[in-house]
Each structure stands twice: as C-alpha cells, then as structure tokens.
C-alpha cells in the first residue's frame, strides 16, 4: 500500500551561528530556520580565541551559508572573553546579538538541555538566534569601555590595600615583628593610596570630557550617598544598561534576584542568588549605608525589612537592590533625582 503522506520540501529562511566563547577557544554551532518554522542543525566546530581563529571562524561560516539569507551570530556576555570576537564580527559587517547569561541559561533549560558542555551551550545559542528576533548588538560607548577598565583596576587596588592593611596589623601586633617588613608594607600602602587617588581623578576627568555623559551623571549624583566612583562602576559594568530591558533582568544580572526555598511544610532561608555581576554588588555595599542615613525612602525600606527579618545585612541588601533599580530608572528616563523629604537617620542603623 502506498503512503498517502507527502514529503514537504522546505527551504531555509534564516541562518544562525551560536558562539560559546571561553578564554582559549570558541565553540560554534550552525542552525537554520526553514519556511516551516523548523530549526535544523547542520554543523559545529571549534576555533581558537585568537585573531587567526576569528578569520578561520568567519571563513567557515561563509562556507556554510549557501544562499543569501539573514544571518545572525549569537554570543553570551561572558566577562571579557567574548569582546574581541564580537568586535571582529561587527567590523566585518556581521549581525551580532549578545544575550545575558541568565537569559541564555533559562532558554537552554526550556529546551530540556540539562547537561552543560561548550558544544551544548553553542547549540542553545544558535537555536535561540534562529527562533527569536534578538536585538542587534550596539557597540558600547568608548567612554564607558574606558571607565570599566579604570574602575575594575581601582577595585583591584582597593583589594590590595585591604590585604596590606591586614598584614601590617598582624606584623605590628606580633611579638617579634620585623621593623623592615613593617617599613616595606607602609611604603606599599602609601603607593597604593596614591594610585587610588590618581584613578579617582582619572574617572572624574573621563566623565567630564564627555558633556552628555556628565549631564546624565549629575542627574543621578543628586542621590545623597551615591558618589562618582559608584555610578561610574554601575554604568560602565552595564554598558549604560544597553542589554537591560526591565528591572527583573537588571536584578538578575547583578545577582540580586531572590531565591526561595520552600516546599510543603519546609521553609528554608530566602537569599539572593549572587550569580550576577559581582562588581556591581561590591560597589553598592558602602552607598547602602549612606542612603539609609540620608535618604528617607531607603531608611523606611531598611526599617521595614529589619523589623521583618531582624537581620541588618538583609535589610542593607534590600537597600542595595532598590538603589540599583532607582539608578536604572533615572538613567533610562533621563530624569533628575528628587528626594521625597528631609534627610533622616534610621534608628536601627545606630542600634
């Protein structure tokens, strides 16, 4: 008996390349979307994360594209490792889309892909690019890129300063502490403090050289407790919130998304994920103390959370989260911050 089913001939309508980038190599997966809305995988390959590897990657991709169709290259924002290949593809007129790690992770889970390998991650990105109309990557502002390099270097200097202070204290309280070691540590400390001052001045000059950026900064710096270094770090780490479209994405990107642990009669601890950008969380630590002291809305939030949890640090983390969202809203809307009332001091802050 002959089958009544007829094979339907399909034609590709879109090419998608998913690039999973690590320090040493780039895993690439090639998918097509046909006119029946079916995604098919047609190949994968690995290339070195070098200029030579970029050229080989582009040649391989061009060979895979048999027809002139819309072609997208999907990358995950993985620290700094993806930046060179993203710029290389952009400079060669390729349509590049960069997605946040949490978005790529959730999409992969929706496909039922429980294992995690470089090739699987590349496939997930390629399939996402084929199925979705992802926004094309807009290259970050040059000033913001410079600020990110500067503020990260400053963060390293502050970490080194803390280490030296701890070692210096240990030597000073040691019974037979070496005078030479103490002298050398004090010299190192003095040098680092001088370098931090120079970095702070460089941040100020970099912002002031860009009139548009300075105007936007001034609107947000009206928040009492938020300084130039804090704001420069947040804006540069998010590329001016270019990949952020809502508050949930922002809190997840910064690691402030809430993880609950409750099932049936069991109620565990509620915490933040801490799986996002640690530079943002670190720089918001001290401003949280200051805005609670000087800004009424944050003082009220601190009071409410502390009354409910009896844990000060949870209250301060809630303040950090709200402060980040406020900065995001002011930046996106281009509005000036206005305090709701006169500064107050939270009673629990001094308890």
Automatic annotation (TrEMBL):
Residue runs in coiled coils: 182-216
InterPro entries (UniProt xref): Transp_IS110-like_N, Transpos_IS110, Transposase_20
Gene Ontology molecular function: any one: DNA binding
Domain Transposase IS116/IS110/IS902 C-terminal: 220-301
Keyword flag Nucleotidyltransferase: no
Keywords assigned by UniProt, alphabetized: Coiled coil
Superkingdom assignment: Bacteria
Gene Ontology BP term (one): DNA transposition
Residue stretches making up the Transposase IS110-like N-terminal domain: 18-170
PANTHER family for the chain: TRANSPOSASE, TRANSPOSASE FOR INSERTION SEQUENCE ELEMENT IS1111A
Protein's recorded name: Transposase for IS1663
Organism: Chlorobium chlorochromatii (strain CaD3)
């Amino acid at each position: 008996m002959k089958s009544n089913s007829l094979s339907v001939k399909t034609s590709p309508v879109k090419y998608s390349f998913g690039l999973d980038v690590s320090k040493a190599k780039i895993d690439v997966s090639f998918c097509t979307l046909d006119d029946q809305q079916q995604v098919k995988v047609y190949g994968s390959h690995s290339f070195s994360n070098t200029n030579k590897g970029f050229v080989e990657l582009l040649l391989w991709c061009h060979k895979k594209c048999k027809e002139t169709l819309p072609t997208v290259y999907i990358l995950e924002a993985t620290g700094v490792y993806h930046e060179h290949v993203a710029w290389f593809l952009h400079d060669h007129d390729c349509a590049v889309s960069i997605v946040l790690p949490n978005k790529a992770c959730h999409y992969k889970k929706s496909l039922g892909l429980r294992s995690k390998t470089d090739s699987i991650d590349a496939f997930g990105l390629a399939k996402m690019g084929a199925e979705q109309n992802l926004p094309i990557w807009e290259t970050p502002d040059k000033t913001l890129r410079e600020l990110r390099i500067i503020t990260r270097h400053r963060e390293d200097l502050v970490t080194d300063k803390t280490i030296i202070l701890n070692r210096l204290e240990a030597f000073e309280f040691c019974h037979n502490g070496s005078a030479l070691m103490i002298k050398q540590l004090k010299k190192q400390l003095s040098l680092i403090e001088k370098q931090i001052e120079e970095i702070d001045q460089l941040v100020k000059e970099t912002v002031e050289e860009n009139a548009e950026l300075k105007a936007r900064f001034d609107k947000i710096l009206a928040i009492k407790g938020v300084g130039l270094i804090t704001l420069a770090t947040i804006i540069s780490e998010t590329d001016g919130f270019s990949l952020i479209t809502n508050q949930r994405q922002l809190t997840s990107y910064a690691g402030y998304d809430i993880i609950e642990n409750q099932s049936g009669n069991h109620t565990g601890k509620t915490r933040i994920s801490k799986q996002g950008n640690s530079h943002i969380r670190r720089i918001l630590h001290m401003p949280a103390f200051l805005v609670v002291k000087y800004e009424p809305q944050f003082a009220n939030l601190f009071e409410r959370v502390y009354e409910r949890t009896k844990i000060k640090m949870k209250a301060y983390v809630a303040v950090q989260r709200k402060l980040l969202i406020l900065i995001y809203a002011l930046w996106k809307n281009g509005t000036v911050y206005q305090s709701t009332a006169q500064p107050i001091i939270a009673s629990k802050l001094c308890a």
